[in-house]
Structures are given as structure tokens and as C-alpha cells.
Amino acid sequence: MLKILTALSLVAVPPQADLALPEPTGPLPVGTTDLHLVDESRPDPWNPEADRRELMVTLWYPARRDSGERARYLSPQESAAVLAPYRDVPPDALTRVRTHAGRGAAVRAGRHPLVVLSPGFTFPRATLTSLGEDLASRGYLVAAVEHTYESVATTFPDGRTTSCLACVPGQDGAVVAAGRAADVSFVLDELTAARWGRSVDRSRIAVAGHSMGGNSAAAVLAKDRRIKAGANLDGTFIPPVERLDRPFLLIGSPRTHAWDGSDDSWKKSWAHLKGPKKWITIAGTDHSAFVDYAVLRPPLGIPAQELDGARALRITRDHLAAFLDRHLRGRKTPVPAYPEVVDQGRKAAAFSSAH
């Protein structure tokens, strides 16, 4: 949460502030479960005392029926770590976020396209819940990966809670992205085998991420041919993309990721995205408006984006789902003509034609 956890003046927050995520928009009920995966083939890149890489993964999937308790958003330890900079916000506030997936609900029969989600640096995987639940309600199996020691806190099934060992000044984003690419490939190995293998369509896999997770999406696409499409939500490319030959979606805030925005890594990468591609910005957004913080910050008194949070998420979810539908399913899913959306790809094409 490098972009939002800053020294801000906050208003007092009611102890029981209403913290609800927007409902999924698809027709299917959603189930969820958490997986504890262990990669015995490699040591942890951040913890020198760990000779294996442990990961927590949250799955959302189309369920047979709407059943099971609603899933918990964050553990008390995770919530306290996220909210530590905000003295006026109850440390357990994020344990009360209302989600929409039934824990342990039976998965819908058949093989489903798989989307792997990667969160921003220091962001818990839970911040991708709105995206995950929505895609699952549209028929996707979704896996959000917690990149251990890169989140402010990660709670494991045995009660351990790890901190962000990777959070050091001058951390190399390219090194982080390379490690995340290895995490995602391992998760794909696990999900396409054993229990979940019967529910995954191996020919239809995509990866999407927010911030560092979006940068990592490009890194894993470059390494793993199983992945057919990718998406970057407001993440700087470190370094700029040299070549990608599969479909790629860019969604960002205009301040940083418009054609003339402050981050030129998308501009430098655009010509090197050789597959089908799309680049849009959403007016009134900031860096965290593409994930759950869009709707969770206002009721907690944390300054947020100008655009209504639910609308920011709706636009993001609609464009992401339509892109995945087109390139994983061969479907043309209509998207409303949101006035906040600007097609930066057209600006890029016009610039190239003029030069």
C-alpha cells in the first residue's frame, strides 16, 4: 500500500462503519476457499531462513448454489498491520468487511477459464476481492496470490503472521516481478493438477494485477506460455516491456498513466505490445481506485479518489471482464459508454501516425 499509507489527517470513524464490497454483477453464485501452497523446489527469496517458498492463495469460483458463510476479509493481525498508520481507525475495522462469496461452497461442474490475480506491493491479496468475486460470478475460476513477505501482513492457517521483509528502501521492482512470476507459475502448476485440475480449462488462462502485480503480469507472460492474456491495473512497468505477443490490457489513472502522464513506462512499452491491446484511463481515479480500497477508504475517513468508489470498481470490472471474455472465450461482451473512460491507445496511434 505504498500509495495510500501515508501520514494523513483522518476524521473520527464510527466503530461499526459500514464496510461492504459491491455485489458481483454476473449471474452465478460465488464460492471461495483459501489454499496454503508450498514450493519445495526453491528457497524463499526474502527470508534466508526459509528453504522453501510458502504462499497463501484465495480462490473464487462459480458455485453450484449460494451457500456457506461469507468469507472473512482479513485476519485481525492483517487488518491491524494495514491500518497501523491510521491512529483514528479501529485496528480491526477490516475484519468486518462484508464479502459475497460462500466459504467452501461446491464448485460448479465443468472446466472454467482461470485468471490469476497479483496484488500491489505491500497490498494483501484480499484487496482484489471485488475483482475476484465479480469474475467468478461471470464463470471464471480466480486465484489471488499473496506474495509472502511482500504484503504488510500474511496470516497462515497455523496462526503465524509474517511481515513485509521485502519492504526496504530502494527495492528493485524487476527483482520483485521476477520472483512473482515464479510464484504465479508455481500456482498454475498446483491448480492445473490434483483436485482443482478438473475445474480448470488449461487452454484459457490469464494473469492480471494491480500496481506491482500489473508489472508482474507482464513478467510472467514473458516467461510462461500457458498464459494467453494479461492486464495491468495502474502499475509501472519495471523495466518497460521489450516484447509481448499476447493480448494485454492497461487500465490506469490519468495523472500517471495517460499518454502524457507522469509515468512514461506505458508509453515506452506500447509499441512493444505486439498482440491485441487496449489502453484506457478512468477520470477521477487514483492509484488505489482499481481495487477494494476504492470503496473501503471513504467510510474509514481515509482520503480517496474523486470518482465514487463503487463506480470506479464497476468500470474496472466491466472492462477487465470484457477483455478476458474476448481473448479467453471469444465473446464480445458489451461495455457501457462510461464518460470517465479515455482511450489512450487511440492517442498513442495518432501520435505514431504523426511521427
Description:
Keywords: Hydrolase, Lipid degradation, Lipid metabolism. The radius of gyration is 19 Å and the shape is globular. Helix content is 29%, strand content 19%. Residues 1-12 have low confidence and may be disordered. Helix 5 links the parallel strand 8 (200-210) and strand 9 (229-233). The strands form 2 sheets. Strands 3-1-2-5-4-8-9-10-11-12 form a 10-stranded mixed beta sheet, sandwiched between helices. A two-stranded antiparallel ribbon has the order 6-7. Helix 2 packs across helix 9, helix 3 packs across helix 5 and helix 8 (293-300) packs antiparallel against helix 9 (309-329). It has one domain (30-354): Rossmann fold (3-Layer(aba) Sandwich). It has 10 helices and 12 strands. The protein is of the alpha/beta class and 355 residues long.
How do the strands and helices of this protein lay out in sequence?
Blueprint lengths: L29 E10 L13 E10 L13 H8 L18 E2 L8 E7 L10 H9 L3 E6 L7 E2 L5 E2 L10 H19 L2 H4 L2 E11 L1 H12 L5 E5 L14 E5 L1 H4 L7 H6 L6 E6 L10 H8 L8 H21 L11 E3 H11 L1
Helix pairs in contact: 2-9, 3-5, 8-9
Based on the structure given, which CATH architecture is correct? 3-Layer(aba) Sandwich
From N to C, what is the helix and strand string?
EEHEEHEEEHHEHEEHHEHHEH
Query: Compute the gyration radius: what is it?
Result: 19 Å
What general outline do the C-alpha atoms trace? Answer: globular
User: Helix/strand/pairing class, anyone?
Assistant: alpha/beta
Largest sheet features: 10 strands, mixed
Quickly name the level 1 CATH class: Alpha Beta
CATH topology category name: Rossmann fold
DSSP strand (E) fraction?
15-25%
Please report the number of helical segments: 10
Mean pLDDT: 94
Cα distance spanning the termini: 38 Å
| Major sheet: arrangement of strands | 3-1-2-5-4-8-9-10-11-12
The overall number of domains is 1
Determine the CATH superfamily: Alpha/Beta hydrolase fold, catalytic domain
Tell me roughly what share of residues is in helical segments.
Answer: 25-40%
Organism: Nonomuraea wenchangensis
Keywords: Hydrolase, Lipid degradation, Lipid metabolism
GO molecular function: 1-alkyl-2-acetylglycerophosphocholine esterase activity
InterPro entries: AB_hydrolase_fold
